[in-house]
Amino acid sequence: MDIVLKGGTVVTARDSYGADVGIQDGRVAEIGQDLQGRETLDASGKYVLPGAVDPHTHLELEFMDTVSCDDFYTGTVAAAFGGTTTIIDYAEQTKGGTLRQAVETWRSRADSKVAIDYGLHVSITDAREDVLAEMEEMISAGISSFKCYLAYPERLRDDELLRVFSRAKEIGGLVNVHCENGWLVDYMTARLLEEGKTEPRWHPRSRPAAFEAEATQRAVTLASIADAPLHIVHLTCVGALDAARRARDADQPVLVETCPQYLLLDVDRYDEPGFNGAKYVISPPLREAENLEALWRGIAAGDVDSIGTDHCPFNLVGQKDVGRNDFTRIPNGMPGIETRVPLLYHEGVNKGRFSLNRFVELVASNPARIFGLYPQKGTVAVGSDADLVIWDPSKEKPLTVENLHMNVDYSPYEGITVSGYPELVLARGRIIVRDDEFLGQRGGGRFLERKQFSRY
Ligand code: URP
Ligand code: ZN
Questions:
Q1: Most buried of 51, 253, 275, 431, CB within 10 angstroms?
Q2: 0.90 exceeded by pTM
Q3: pLDDT (tens digit, 9 = 90+) per residue, 412-441?
Q4: How many angstroms does the Cα of residue 58 sit away from the middle of ligand 2?
């Protein structure tokens, strides 16, 4: 063996057991007792987890007249510090452009910078006939999931979304949908502005939970008409969860992602003093407290499949502050790529909301399965990539901006100290993080070709 992780407790989505993990040529080569290697890493008293998979990021995204402030280097380094060794970012088609162009643009930004492996989804913003035809080429290029927005001006009409679902069904693709009724958001926003309501606290009032619940039900209905699988991204509220649950009870392939911010932060954040509410201007917005409780219950009940981040950071000073006098100009998005896994461990496992195995399933195994990366990623098994985390369950970390590595000027989790944090992170058998030191390489990650969607 090149490396042996010795004496830890291996944790997967299915089981937990004491074993050594042997790594050869970047893969897990053996799991057993008394393994020997050229280098030994002590994991006693610690967990050996699969590197986590973040299925929802937006690095260096051009959005609302600015660019998200983590690039593919800073963002993936920050991900690694938090125990994430794979991300799937969204390449965005431009109106009039092709999917191929979107992917070329994203790969030209990412390939030379990524510190961990990455895959791409591609967003369809212009569902022309030639673009629907091109979807098959994406599948061949290992981009097996598509995104459609119902929220923003780039949104698709219902008939266009139906055609995307039908095409995805034909070619084995999975459609991710951002479910908010953008027409109603535009109407409500115009009314608020007319009334002079311009502060960040009006952002959630411009896009209430009912607009998300309605759009979620619509996406579920269209997917069912096309008999196609649906992945609902960043689900936030009871009404949307109910729509997904009803479909799942009827055996419709509907998958649900939520994000830590929708579990841990509520609508009161928009009332923070001064312009601080802008930190939380994201879409969908933070919700009333009863939704947070419903999401935790949904996770425990198995109604939620995965936790992504929707990492899309903008600095408060110099980016978000363009909207000081008009909340509609505040770039929507917040940081999270580094804090997802520790927050879920702390709030989920430490607080007894779910098991250690369910935690691994939510942050690693299920995102890998849903997006065609399993078992290369998302588990600890012989033959899997040696993307591994030695997790110290007693390591404490205050999630202050100074303690984190994301290239953004605030932490939404300031004031929270988590227990449980990565001690060592390996990507394809190389140590890339040791405590507070990054030991990986710019461009050390690879582009991942993902398999077609299959129900799991
Ligand atoms: O506020 C958000 N979510 N910004 C990122 C873009 C998106 O809608 O996912
Ligand atoms: Zn997103």
A1: 51
A2: yes
A3: 999 999 999 999 999 999 999 999 999 999
A4: 6
